[in-house]
Design a protein that fits this description.
Length: 269
């Protein structure tokens, strides 16, 4: 049986659950995988990233996952971007077609599918998004397409304004006005560890990061602030990985079964 080479590029990367997830997908689909995590220097240039990717594929690599801080850089390194990656200007999945490096972004579709599986509101729900980087950009167009109303808050307001302008559509997305007492359906944390006061009241807290316990620092703060439902990013991680796997092999694995497997394996409460 041929062994297919995959890798995750990030910094850090070695903590990732992606190898476990993709190995489980491979078992479902009767494929043999070698999946490695690669930590590249955070100061990597576009040219250096492209050279690394070219060498990987020329040596028989099948596909690459990309995580922070290289999602924006990967979008610049690719020859072509899919519609989702173009909208986000960020890439989490790379593959080759006819010697062209293709960049895709499966974060947004992964999040929407995870939310559907978790029976969370989308259409006409008002979500606050914390952060204006590649992770936020990757989910916004999909949430807007589902009819959600979005407000973006970021430490650097100009960055949030630029992101909003890119996706502006019929008043569906706006800048956070700073009113801590505003009530939202839910809040997404897209910018990593969070240890500050919650900037808004909300019923649902969703952290795009994940932890083995299922409770991240952000979710601890959210629970203390009264959030009734708290979710980390494991289900989204599995879904976005499944769509990346589909890009590489043409097969969409059983996501619900893999999510259950990962939950049990992490002994999450």
């Amino acid at each position: 049986m041929k062994t297919h080479r995959l890798a995750l590029l990030g910094n850090p990367a070695h903590h990732s659950l992606s190898p476990m997830i993709h190995q489980h997908f491979a078992q479902q689909c009767d494929l043999s995988l070698q999946y490695q995590t690669v930590e590249l220097p955070s100061t990597l240039s576009v040219i250096a990233l492209r050279e690394w990717c070219d060498q990987f594929f020329e040596q028989g690599g099948r596909g690459l996952n990309v995580t922070a801080p290289f999602k924006l850089l990967a979008a610049q390194a690719a020859d072509c971007l899919t519609e989702h990656a173009t909208q986000a200007q960020a890439v989490n999945t790379l593959y080759r077609i006819d010697n062209q490096l293709i960049g895709d972004n499966t974060d947004g579709v992964g999040l929407v599918q995870a939310m559907r599986m978790q029976h969370m509101p989308l259409s006409h729900a008002h979500w606050l998004i914390l952060g204006a980087g590649g992770a936020a950009a990757g989910i916004i167009s999909h949430l807007l397409a589902e009819g959600a109303l979005l407000t973006v808050a970021n430490r650097t307001q100009s960055k949030a304004e630029a992101l909003i302008q890119r996706f502006a559509t019929n008043g569906q997305i706006q800048l956070f006005d700073g009113r801590v007492g505003r009530i939202f359906t839910g809040i997404f944390n897209t910018r990593g560890p969070w240890c500050e006061e919650m900037p808004a009241n909300c019923q649902i807290a969703y952290d795009l990061s994940y932890s083995k316990s299922g409770i991240t620092p952000f979710l601890c703060v959210a629970q203390a602030a009264g959030a009734e439902q708290c979710y980390d990013g494991l289900a989204m991680l599995v879904w976005q990985a499944a769509f990346a796997f589909e890009r590489w092999f043409g097969i969409l694995p059983d996501v619900k079964e893999t999510t259950s497997y990962m939950t049990l394996g992490l002994q999450r409460s």
